[in-house]
Structures
1.
Amino acid sequence: MNRNLESALCGVLSLLFTAFAAAQSSYQVIQVSNPGTIAGTVKWSGPQPHVPAMLINKDQAICDPDSHKVRDLERLVIGADGGVANTVVFLSDITEGKAMDLPEQRRSLDQKQCRYEPHILLVPAGGPISIKSSDATLHTVHMDGAATYNLPFPFINQTVSRVMPTPGMVNVRCNGGHTWMNAEVLVVPHPYYAVTDAAGKFELKDVPPGEYELVAWHEGWSLLRQEASFDVLTEHKVQRPVFSEPRIWKRRVKVDEGGNTVVNFVLSEK
């Protein structure tokens, strides 16, 4: 594929989540009567694609204490039973419901052994993200997309907070030469978002009765290429991974009063 066309397609598909979020900017908090629950799984079907690892070529004592030599990019995490972790499942067309109650662990980012924990974050629009580093080396968190920050972390366990003002997707990477580090922050306008666990399970609670569009969003798992970038610390060129576009699946669902709706998504390479 032509590189310009490829980049344009990735940009358009990456903006789909931003479009979903922007459409929900008028969300209102109400008292939900007789709420229901949407739960289910996201699982993989068919052969698993090869997702290449990257060489750990900097700060090996900190980034690779067990001498693995390479680091998985965590773009596609499939459990033993086929469950796909780190898939975001959300309601795309809900306009009113419960107050924001996203889990605290999805709103805080740690840099630990030169990887981001967690890999997928959910932060309320207009709310803060909390970031720290557990590593005794210099990381520089670079964000672009719905929020743009470049934050150095020269000291261990020093927490920095920044407001995420606009709904949408934020790409996170390290500008300190640890080029394999990558994560995504989804800045969201309402609380009906969930990230699948290691078994691919998700649950949305306290949903007002009604019909909705349920979306499963995955960041994409293919490594398209590596591009030359600049290490601000060593002032040398480095190779940074460029990933494929996010993937999206949609389902119409009905939530009955006090009911439990089960929805299962199946992902594949096709």
2.
Amino acid sequence: MAQQLGYHPDAFARSLRRRRSQTIGVLAYDLSDPYCIPIVRGIQAGLQPASYLPLLMDAQTQRGLFDSYLQMILERRAEGVIVIASWVFDETNLLSDVQKNNVPIVIVSRDLTARGVSSILVDNEAGGALAMRHLHELGHRRIAVIRGPEEMFDSGPRWAGVQSAAAEAGIEFDPHLVFQLPNLVDPTSGFEGGLDCARRMMATGRPFTAVLAFDDLTALGVVRGLLGAGLRVPEDCTVLGFDDVLPAEVSTPGITTIRQPLREMGLLAAEWVVDAIKARELRREQKPRLHRAPPELVVRMSSAGPVERGKRTGGKLELAT
């Protein structure tokens, strides 16, 4: 009868009686970044069966907003917090505020287990090595590399993996063909950075047959830059990305990339935060957990073997002597 009359229980009043908010704060570094969306969807899918409502907030890559939104989440008595943070931020306030309020927290895309925070991230070093080995197996030896911004937590490990695999293969990078993206302002910065790096690598006049980009948006910018210089991908130059976000799949050419299981990482974050809430209710100690997700090579149209018996110099194909 109540349902026929359109009556719904007052969840807010019920939560006050039980002193339970049934909400989980989800703080993302930038929701306009296609990297965040699959993680958020995984979190939502994981929280729904447990009857928790995600309180989603977008820090827009601004540390001030990050701190402000975290405080708002705690003021609204969220029972747990999930943070998506692949950029380097000052975690002091985060940890002190959350731990002081005895709120379980899980962080995605950073390893803060040493600070007592359960962490979920891809194995970036293994991913960098996987990308480099793919290019080597295709026959590429002259490889341009675009490193990530210094503020991105993923940048160092990913570059370490690339260097390790290159050393194993006996490949030395031309220092004139190693670039670094500036610190990000917004997600389009990656695309613009890739476009700029493509122009700069062409201007060096140095031969290269492949470009290993920091992530997929950077790779898309590289493709645009190479096409603007009259080069075809992959016929004239292979381009490889990282992450496997949707634009990499639907672009032409589709970008060969190193896949992060983003939705699965979100699902696991939801599972862990719910487990931590239950452990707190039972007054059971729970040690911080770490999950390094294995990366996966996804081969698409943007990678192929180098042009046979040729080399690229200043954007023109010249026969090798």
3.
Amino acid sequence: MVIQADDIRSAAERIRPLARRTPVLSSAAFDVEYGKHVYFKCENLQNGGAFKIRGAANLILSLPNAALAHGVVAYSSGNHAQATAIAARHLGAQATIVMPEDAPRSKMEATRSYGARIVTYNRFTDSREQIAGRIQRESGATLVPPFDHPMIMAGQGTAALELLEETGPLGALITPVGGGGLLSGCAVIAKAIQPAIRIFGAEPEGANDTFLSLLAGERVAVRPDTIADGLRSPKPGELTFPIIKSLAERIALVSDDEIRAAVKFLLLRLKILVEPSGAAGAAAVLFRKLPDDVRSVGVVLSGGNVDWEELARY
């Protein structure tokens, strides 16, 4: 595996200046209704509104000054964009972010407010990787990938490290899965702390590339179609997939309607705002997608950035 538990522990120290130690919430009524002890790791309350600051900060804070002088470049629909912009601004480096034209307006405006330069593209006709590569070659900037990089994966894993430090042993851990950076990082540290813990991912039915990839035993690409814009990666990462294949028991698929219901539930019952991508794991628990014999579970609520017009429709 490209990362080990010590990489995640080192990341936890490195990112302290930027990443908050987010709260863990529970609900007695929820536990009674669904027959499980559920602990919600609230990354929706993280700096930048999502877990992504953990990975972006881990990579950017490790760069030498000579590299920072040329800036950083990233591609993202929003949360990784904001995280990269925040970490770059902290060090006085220029961030250029390649974002789809149809990215949520709130995420695009927030990214720009952190001082980033935004380059838009058509997600159906253009390659964000090619655009970022061109910018990287022309400027000498350092690429900050959204998930498929050891430093990014190690940073994301710090969410599970904090969760287990607070809750103690759990029966299972579930995180949303897009490209796999969060799930792979969390799986590595969770298994190191508690080898018997069961690892699950939550993925939209309309963006089920990791689910299909595990069935096939190799990475499979799809054309994502889901309201969960942060989980629209068309294919698992080259580095993240082997870890998920090795450590995750399975991927729970949730529909967009189930995700909407989870967003509504979290807002009205736990009084926290979680975006559709961040609510995928909660939806899997709400709609009983985990095995019945799982009695306690940690759920990573990965982000809370959602346009208010969309929220009103949910």
4.
Amino acid sequence: MPVLQEGSAGSAVADLQNKLRTRGFDPGAQDGVFGPGTVAAVEAFQRSAGLAADGVVGPQTAAALGLTPALPTVSLIPAVTPAMVCQMFPNTPASNIDENLAIVLNALVTPQLASKPMILMALGTIRAETECFMPISEGQSAFNTSPGGHPFDKYDSRSDLGNQGPPDGERFKGRGFIQLTGRTNYQVHGNAIGMGNQLVDNPDLANDPQIAAKLLASFLKSREQSIATALEKGDLATARRLVNGGSNGIDRFTDAYQIGSSLIPDTVSA
């Protein structure tokens, strides 16, 4: 598609405006005219996606918005291959790993989490939380929804999650690779990855793969020292509890961690 910028007009701009609105970035009138409102929405989207915020929709921004097929992501940690990770995720479609592995690994580089233990921690966490290796939303269960209650009502007033009553339970349900949950986590980690209030205003953005990977890295970074100490001791149960708060998925986490430990080289470069 052609480069779109201020002054552009036509059906391609209308499609762009529709994509921006569905992603939570309001361009104003959907009139097919690339005006100041569309410029501002494009810049806000670019900042959220870690792209140069120039207000111009070139190939990278178009791919990130889903206007064109996604450009292949080059891994910054090539020593960790899709073939290795497929062995760590024996029940997961290889296509999902091919599509998202580089995105996840690259998100670990900037916060300096690209060591073998933390890479294994990140991948093991995904195996425990979202084994499909795609960012997804939490489903209803007896854990989060009362019999006969509205969806996620058990989360509504959880002060430990920062929720403030209905509809916060459903609004800030688990999403992403790590199943980020609760208003406070959306605010804190949204700020940490440079999104400000955008994640609180539009929680579904946590299921965008690029954003989901950064949120996973941010969450692990916030607990890095405690996780590293547990991993040094071989205490995988404590490492898992530092993320999940309990032992949910510990079998999958442990299996992925141990398989990956035997496959991934001790020294990885990023």
